[in-house]
Amino acid sequence: MPPDVLEIPPGNEMFDGYRAAFERYGFAPAVKARGFLFISGQVGVRPDGSVPENVGEQTLCALARIGELLRIAGLGFGDLVDVTSYHVDIETSLPAFLEAKQRVIRAPYPAWSIIGISGLSRPALKVEIRATAALRD
Predict the structure, then answer these.
(1) What's the pLDDT score for residue 90?
(2) Hey, what domains does the chain have and what are their CATH numbers?
(3) Cα–Cα distance between 135 and 33 in angstroms, integer?
(4) Model confidence over 58-94: pLDDT tens digits?
(5) What CA–CA distance (Å, rounded) separates 7 from 111?
(6) In this structure, what are the phi and psi dihedrals at residue 114, rounded to the nearest 5 degrees?
């Protein structure tokens, strides 16, 4: 079965402002393939494109974007099986990230890798999260 791009319905408040970016940079927000939903890295921006100043808020925004993609696919956070998060200034940003993460992600937890990096696509961004969820039968 070939990969299937997750279609975001028109008028979706979370992603309507990003449709042009998907085309411009040549990527899908999420793809279904071989029983999984692969979610592209989601950064901590608000629906209007503005970037919160603190890492905790950026984390909640990135997780909200992931949550919306999961919802569109008929899934939830409990369906996540593998997550990777990328962190600028990891030594100082990790506590706020973990606090925000604990507000959203509940047991049973997915596998999760936390990686420190030097920067993201915009200087104000401090966290990006990519995820894989198991599709339901």
Answers:
(1) 97
(2) 4-134 (3.30.1330.40)
(3) 9
(4) 999 999 999 999 999 999 999 999 999 999 999 999 9
(5) 26
(6) -115, 120
Query: pTM score, two decimals?
Result: 0.95
Mean pLDDT of 2-24: 87
Segments in the chain forming alpha helices (H): 19-25, 55-72, 90-104
Q: How many CB atoms lie within 10 A of CB 25?
A: 9
- Write the CB contacts of 11 (distance below 8 Å, at least 6 apart in sequence): none
Got the DSSP string for 30-62? EEEETTEEEEEEEES--TTS---SSHHHHHHHH
- Average pLDDT score, the chain: 94
Whole-angstrom CA distances from 84 to 8, 50, 95 are 23, 23, 16
CA distance 2 to 90: 37
Cβ contacts of residue 93 below 8 Å, gap of 6+? 55, 87, 126, 127
CB contact set of 102 (below 8 Å; sequence gap of 6+): none
For residue 1, what pLDDT is reported?
66
